[in-house]
Write a structure and sequence with these properties.
Strand order of the largest sheet: 1-2-3
Strand content: 5-15%
Shape: elongated
Order of helices and strands: HHHHHHHHHEEHE
Largest sheet: 3 strands, mixed
Distance between the termini: 40 Å
Structural class: mainly alpha
Helix content: 55-70%
Number of strands: 3
């Protein structure tokens, strides 16, 4: 393998001590800048530092995760269609207002699935002149949409529950026919929605998609809603008709809480609030390792901007003021690639070279 000129002498030894994966004698890491001459020719000495091979591999990985997120969302669509029909039919046959309200609740889930699918399609578009950083911010916009649907759903559940509670207070509790059948349908709905929640949440975390994660929590709110319906039906069967209404109020409060938390998280992402302490700490740890290796003097002004499943990092690389411009730039490339090795979600690092004899905030 051809080794760059900057990879000789003390610079090579210190970098290998800090990051053994950079050693020319070791198998090449997927995102290493020093993988091949073709990779190094991706951007020349420009500010981006994104090698061609790394870009292609990252795009393949992102496409695979997007397809996985789309598949799990379509799985939710199919489940919601089936559960809406099942709950509606069982609610009509048994006379359960709880199951009927839950069927309407499931219909709102289809709107959430539609928002998720549309968002996944939009954020998959490549960067262009209009959106030079890509369409990742629309992930947060879609998350706000899902949060809004959750909030509307919470209001709907609260309204239905208060109406049912008033009927109980007035002495007109609803009667049920075929209660065991209605109870069985509610149990099935709880199980299906909980399974969907766990699958969707796992895929959303893998794809780092806030809109898929928000949709997962929508499935969890559905599971709890069906759980309350199940408890209400059981309460009516044992002579406690008010349980349905009280449980509905509790689920409405939980759903509203989830909507606010998910929506506020999306707002933080849209406004570039520095909330990812794990990533910030990890980048500083990379800087500390490179400091020990003598490659740089330090890092400062580390900032992160999230664009859906990926993020951009902006930082200052502090180096010895007596280094040549070329040598300082080569060390900055090592910093950039070290960060991307440790944190694959970082698609670009904008690094500013600063001499150590100048004060840095």
């Amino acid at each position: 393998m051809t080794v760059p000129a900057c990879w000789n002498g003390p610079l090579r030894r210190s970098a290998v001590r800090s990051y053994p994966a950079f050693s020319p004698g070791r198998p090449c890491w997927r995102r290493s800048w020093f993988c091949s001459p073709a990779t190094r020719q991706g951007h020349g000495d420009g500010g981006h530092g994104q090698g061609l091979t790394a870009d292609i591999e990252a795009e393949i990985e992102d496409d695979g995760l997007r397809r996985k997120a789309t598949r799990v969302t379509w799985l939710g669509v199919g489940a919601n269609v089936c559960l809406t029909g099942l709950k509606g039919a069982a609610g009509y046959a048994s006379g359960s207002t709880g199951l009927m309200a839950d069927a309407v609740h499931n219909m709102t889930d289809l709107a959430g699935d539609a928002v998720s699918l549309l968002t996944l399609r939009v954020v998959a578009a490549p960067a262009d002149e209009k959106y030079p950083y890509g369409y990742g911010k629309y992930d947060a916009v879609g998350t706000l949409g899902v949060a809004g649907i959750l909030l509307v759903t919470a209001g709907e559940i609260l309204h239905q529950s208060l109406e049912s509670l008033l009927e109980v207070v007035r002495g007109n509790p609803c009667g049920l026919q075929m209660a065991p059948m209605a109870l069985g349908v509610a149990v099935v709905c709880v199980a299906v929605k909980e399974i969907l929640f766990r699958i969707t949440l796992r895929v959303g975390k893998e794809a780092r998609s806030s809109v898929v994660i928000a949709n997962a929590w929508h499935h969890r709110s559905d599971a709890l809603s069906s759980l309350v319906v199940m408890g209400g039906i059981g309460g009516v069967m044992v002579g406690l008709p008010y349980m349905d209404a009280v449980g509905g109020v509790m689920v409405a409060g939980y759903t509203a809480k989830q909507a606010v938390e998910i929506g506020w998280g999306a707002v933080k992402g849209l406004t570039d609030q520095q909330t990812d302490t794990r990533l910030l700490h990890g980048i500083r740890e990379v800087g500390d390792k490179l400091m020990v290796g003598g490659i740089i003097t330090g890092l400062s002004k580390v900032r992160v901007r999230h664009f859906g499943a990926y993020c951009l990092v902006d930082l200052n690389v502090i180096v010895d003021p007596f280094l040549s411009v070329g040598d300082a730039h080569k060390r900055t490339k090592i910093v950039r690639r070290a960060i991307q090795l440790e944190h694959p979600e970082v698609h670009e690092v904008l690094a500013h070279v600063c001499p150590s004899d100048v004060q840095h905030d």
